């Protein structure tokens, strides 16, 4: 860290902070925390402790609490600082601001006021979980916290059931079992999935398997700490050849091979040409 970082231009700076290990903070984040005229934090105690760990003193600078309960009142104050030529750094409890935290409304308000917003990227539970899950990362959807009510949770998951991407959820330990059961019901027990707990911390744990397997393994897990649940996209688990042939034979009882292949391919998430070729080997008339 530069002992004398350059002064910051007036702007809102979103600063990513560690999700577990304090050493995961970036050098740029430390520079911003050292130089910002004002620091806004979701939890001022956590932020003060992080700064103390890294030897950063407030030195009389304002440390402003900004969270869901006071955001409406604090946004004009923070915008006022920037209009007066000051730099404002915002940090959430942990990880990247705006990912499941109250920073969105602040960023939107600063943008609407015609003022600059910038970000110092860094730790993110979403990306850390994707990295260790073993699931595809070329396309993913962060779905946040599922609704706590059973009916709303099922509706929420049904809306996501056809999304062709890895799904990422945050969940509390006491609701994990209910979420997994609802995922089996709506997404299917054979979908590949992962549960990541306490990422980057001393007792980090990742369980991988199908949703059915993870439900069965739940009694063995220590359900404490921060949890990220990931689920593979539809069709990640391929039907075996016997299942495809059986489905084709049933479909061909009432349809031509071409139509039967299309029906089975759509039902099993397989390429239509591949299913059609299997149908030809069955030597059934079209």
What does the model show?
The protein is α/β, with parallel strands linked by helices and 286 residues long. The chain has 11 helices and 10 strands. The protein has helices at 27-35, 44-53, 71-83, 103-112, 125-133, 150-160, 176-187, 211-217, 241-252, 257-268, 272-281, and strands spanning 11-15, 38-41, 63-65, 87-91, 117-120, 140-144, 166-171, 192-197, 205-210, 227-231. A hairpin with a 7-residue loop joins β8 (192-197) and β9 (205-210). α6 (150-160) crosses α7 (176-187), α7 runs antiparallel to α8 (211-217) and α9 packs across α10. The mean pLDDT is 91.
Concise summary:
With 286 residues, this protein is of the alpha/beta class.
The Cα radius of gyration reads: 25 Å
What does the main sheet amount to? 5 strands, parallel
Number of strands: 10
Q: Which CATH-level-2 architecture of the largest domain?
A: 3-Layer(aba) Sandwich
Question: Layout of helices and strands, plus pairs?
Answer:
Blueprint: E1 11-15, H1 27-35, E2 38-41, H2 44-53, E3 63-65, H3 71-83, E4 87-91, H4 103-112, E5 117-120, H5 125-133, E6 140-144, H6 150-160, E7 166-171, H7 176-187, E8 192-197, E9 205-210, H8 211-217, E10 227-231, H9 241-252, H10 257-268, H11 272-281
Parallel strand pairs: 1-4, 1-5, 2-3, 2-4, 6-7
Antiparallel strand pairs: 7-10, 8-9, 8-10
Helix pairs in contact: 6-7, 7-8, 9-10, 10-11
């Amino acid at each position: 860290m530069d002992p004398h970082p350059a002064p910051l231009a007036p702007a809102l700076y979103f600063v990513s902070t560690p999700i577990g290990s304090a050493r995961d903070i970036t050098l740029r984040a430390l520079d911003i925390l050292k130089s910002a005229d004002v620091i806004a934090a979701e939890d001022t105690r956590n932020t003060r402790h992080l700064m103390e760990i890294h030897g950063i003193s407030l030195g009389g600078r304002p440390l402003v609490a900004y969270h869901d309960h006071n955001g409406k009142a604090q946004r004009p104050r923070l915008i006022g600082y920037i209009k007066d030529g000051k730099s404002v750094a915002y940090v959430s409890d942990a990880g990247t601001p705006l990912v499941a935290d109250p920073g969105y409304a602040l960023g939107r308000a600063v943008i609407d006021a015609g003022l600059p917003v910038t970000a110092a990227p860094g730790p993110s539970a979403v990306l850390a979980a994707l990295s260790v899950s073993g699931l595809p990362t070329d396309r993913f959807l962060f779905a946040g916290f599922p609704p706590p009510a059973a009916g709303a949770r099922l509706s929420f998951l049904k809306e996501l059931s056809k999304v062709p991407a890895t799904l990422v959820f945050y969940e509390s330990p006491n609701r994990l079992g209910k979420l997994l059961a609802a995922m089996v019901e709506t997404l299917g027990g054979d979908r590949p999935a992962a549960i990541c707990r306490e990422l980057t911390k001393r007792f980090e744990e990742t369980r991988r398997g199908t949703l059915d397997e993870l439900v069965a393994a739940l009694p063995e897990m220590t359900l404490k700490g921060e949890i990220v649940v990931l689920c593979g996209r539809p069709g990640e688990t391929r039907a075996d050849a016997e299942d495809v042939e059986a489905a084709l034979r049933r479909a061909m009882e009432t349809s031509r091979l071409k139509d039967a292949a299309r029906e089975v391919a759509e039902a099993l998430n397989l390429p239509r040409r591949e299913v059609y070729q299997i149908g030809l080997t069955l030597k059934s008339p079209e």
